[in-house]
């Protein structure tokens, strides 16, 4: 049987990491994969998580299965973090949250839920979007269509085109937006724009799905939730896919959640029963450790405070590197206005580098960037920024 299997194409981003690892150049720079790095180029283990790990080890928790939707204290904390403790969505109990294996697992659960309950629904994704979105929803059997999002000429949100396109989507379709820190562009709507997006989407009877993988990486924990809180109008339905890979540094623990916001608590139970059904036939129930870590940090005032401090440090470093990159590009004489990089948010920036320039950076300078020109700003350090910007000056010409 296996003789007939064709080799699958390499994942463009993970394949880049393999090429980076194999490169013998001691001065190589990896701005490809989306993992936070500190000023020494290391991905830190957060102190709050180390402390929570010790607490959990001492507590000797049982290793029996978790319920299908995961740890109750974790799913409650997820809702509070996303919406705020006193938000009507939380206090009315009109949301159902399932703990999932990472943000990817959250998206897949939503894909299965859509395919099983709304056959024929099209999911609209932004152009561009995180490359795995299409893989995940296609694998679940959901058909996809693209929405204009990014204006290359101005390196900003193509807001007019987005609103116009949303206004033409048939009722009953779903739309996947990024809650904050859009991957790959780094370009997000303003609060006022979110409000207009909500107006059009609810007038059109569309289901908003918000991929929320970077809370706290843009402008702050509360600030980054503005989009989804603006969408969560009274009685309105929406879905939020959370990931704690980045903001808790828990990449390999696979900690995420899907939250289905329904009209009322009764609907949330019914919808929840279908979500549980989707999970049961996928991975049955989620792993416990990572969710326990997040729940432990969020439940303890001192640990939560420590998390805020560590998250703020990561955010400030990324935003600081944006400013440094722009000033160094200028210093090295690279032509053009790169100030848009300072306005983008999150770990990524659409640099505007062409595919040929990206390839030249890789081959001539051992600098690894995704073909689209998306750079991981967290891969920039005070140490490598001169080499990086000199190389960009060289390939841009
Ligand atoms: N959504 C977006 C926009 C992402 O960038 C990522 C991570 N690269 C995910 C979801 C998935 O997160 P996780 O690693 O938790 O599966």
TrEMBL record:
Enzyme class: transferase
Pfam families: Aminotran_1_2
CDD domains xref list: AAT_like
Residues of the signal peptide: none
Sequence ranges assigned to domain Aminotransferase class I/classII large in this UniProt record: 27-392
SUPFAM superfamilies: PLP-dependent transferases
GO CC entries: cytosol
GO biological process, one term: L-phenylalanine biosynthetic process from chorismate via phenylpyruvate
Documented EC number(s): 2.6.1.-
Keywords (A to Z) from UniProt: Aminotransferase, Pyridoxal phosphate, Transferase
Gene Ontology molecular-function annotations: identical protein binding; L-tyrosine-2-oxoglutarate transaminase activity; pyridoxal phosphate binding
Cofactor: pyridoxal 5'-phosphate
Highest taxon, organism lineage: Bacteria
Gene3D superfamilies reported for this sequence: Aspartate Aminotransferase, domain 1, Type I PLP-dependent aspartate aminotransferase-like (Major domain)
InterPro entries recorded: Aminotransferase_I/II_large, Asp_trans, NHTrfase_class1_PyrdxlP-BS, PyrdxlP-dep_Trfase, PyrdxlP-dep_Trfase_major, PyrdxlP-dep_Trfase_small
Family note: Belongs to the class-I pyridoxal-phosphate-dependent aminotransferase family.
Subunit structure: Homodimer.
Protein name as annotated: Aminotransferase
Species assigned in the record: Aeoliella mucimassa
Biological classification of the source: Bacteria, Pseudomonadati, Planctomycetota, Planctomycetia, Pirellulales
Protein's gene: aspC_1
């Amino acid at each position: 049987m296996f003789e007939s299997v064709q080799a699958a194409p390499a994942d463009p981003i993970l394949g880049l990491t393999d090429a980076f690892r194999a490169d013998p150049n001691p001065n190589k720079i990896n701005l490809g994969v989306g993992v936070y790095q500190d000023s020494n180029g290391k991905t830190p283990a957060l102190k709050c998580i180390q402390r929570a790990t010790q607490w959990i080890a001492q507590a000797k928790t049982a290793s029996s299965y978790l319920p299908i939707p995961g740890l109750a204290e974790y799913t409650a904390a997820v809702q509070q973090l996303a919406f705020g403790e006193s938000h009507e969505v939380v206090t009315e109990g009109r949301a159902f949250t399932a703990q999932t294996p990472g943000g990817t697992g959250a998206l897949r659960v939503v894909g299965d839920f859509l395919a099983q309950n709304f056959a024929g629904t099209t999911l609209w994704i932004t152009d561009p979007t995180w490359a795995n979105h299409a893989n995940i929803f296609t694998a679940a059997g959901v058909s996809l269509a693209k929405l204009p999002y990014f204006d290359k000429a101005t390196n900003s949100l193509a807001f007019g085109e987005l609103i116009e396109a949303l206004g033409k989507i048939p009722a009953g379709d779903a739309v996947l937006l990024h809650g904050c820190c859009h991957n790959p562009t780094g370009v997000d709507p303003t609060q006022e724009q979110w409000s207009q997006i909500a107006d059009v989407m609810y007038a059109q009877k569309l289901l908003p799905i918000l991929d929320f993988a970077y809370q706290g990486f843009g402008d702050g924990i509360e600030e980054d939730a503005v989009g989804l809180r603006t969408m969560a109008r009274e009685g309105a339905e929406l879905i939020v896919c959370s990931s704690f890979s980045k903001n808790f540094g828990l990449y390999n623990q696979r900690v995420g959640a899907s939250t289905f916001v329904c009209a009322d608590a009764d609907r949330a139970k019914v919808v929840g029963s279908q979500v549980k059904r989707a999970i049961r036939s996928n991975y049955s129930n989620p792993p416990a450790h990572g969710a326990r870590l997040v729940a432990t940090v969020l439940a303890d005032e001192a640990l939560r405070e420590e998390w805020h401090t560590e998250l703020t440090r990561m955010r400030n470093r990324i935003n600081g590197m944006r400013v440094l990159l722009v000033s160094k590009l200028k210093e090295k004489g690279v032509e053009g206005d790169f100030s848009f990089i300072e306005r983008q948010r999150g770990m990524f920036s659409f640099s505007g580098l062409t595919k040929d320039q990206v390839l030249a950076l890789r081959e001539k300078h051992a600098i690894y960037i995704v073909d689209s020109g998306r750079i991981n700003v967290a891969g920039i350090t005070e140490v490598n920024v001169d080499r990086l910007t000199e190389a960009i000056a060289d390939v841009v010409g």
